[in-house]
Design goal:
Length: 200
């Protein structure tokens, strides 16, 4: 029981704490409604869960032990986050906006795989809760993380949907909100790159 509680706590803290994926979830929920954020949330959840499974088979450890691969991930992740940040900044507060303007399943999936922080979270989670415990504990951890991640990310989208009520009727307010969220995502991308190449 103590191990299950620890798994749940780890999953919840890692999933619900503010980060790039959560920023996009709340911004999408505010701009297009929580249900239209569901594709992105689903992609991010599936992407992270697959990354977690891959980590259990040693690929993530292999990646983290080779600085060149992590450097490439950091640069690719930076570029992708900057792209998504720009997309959020330019998002129009119109529910009839073209579907391509709404962050997609593939965006959420790719963001997790290009984020070195997500790789490190997976490696630490697998090493903490599976180790020599075998496949049964790994299965429990992956399934629990999947549902906790889904619920956490969708909670951020629901928060965005609730904020849309506050911002409703004033398109200018929603534009400012999107500009702030997109800018924060870009700042986060810059910090992650700085952390990797300057502080790391």
């Amino acid at each position: 029981m103590a191990v299950l509680l620890a798994m749940f706590t780890f999953s919840l803290v890692m999933s619900i704490s503010p980060g790039p994926v959560n920023m996009i979830s709340v911004s999408t929920g505010a701009t297009y409604g929580a249900w239209r954020a569901f594709r992105f949330v689903s992609g991010a959840t599936v992407g992270f869960t697959m990354l977690l499974v891959v980590s259990a088979f040693g690929l993530a450890t292999l990646v983290t032990n080779h600085a060149g691969v992590l450097d490439a991930l950091s640069v690719a992740g930076f570029a992708f986050m900057m792209y998504l940040g720009g997309k959020i900044m330019l998002a129009t507060p119109d529910l009839d906006t073209e579907r391509d303007a709404v962050p997609r399943f593939a965006d959420g999936f790719m963001l997790q795989w290009l984020n070195p922080k997500a790789w490190m979270a997976c490696v630490s989670g697998v090493s903490l809760f599976t180790g020599a415990a075998g496949a049964s504990r790994l299965t429990i951890f992956v399934v629990m993380y999947f549902f906790v991640c889904y619920a956490s990310l969708f909670a951020w989208a629901l928060l965005g949907g609730a904020l849309s009520g506050v911002l409703a009727g004033r398109a200018a307010r929603l534009r400012v909100f999107n500009a702030v969220m997109g800018g924060l995502l870009m700042v986060t991308a810059c910090y992650l790159l700085y952390e990797r190449f300057v502080l790391g």
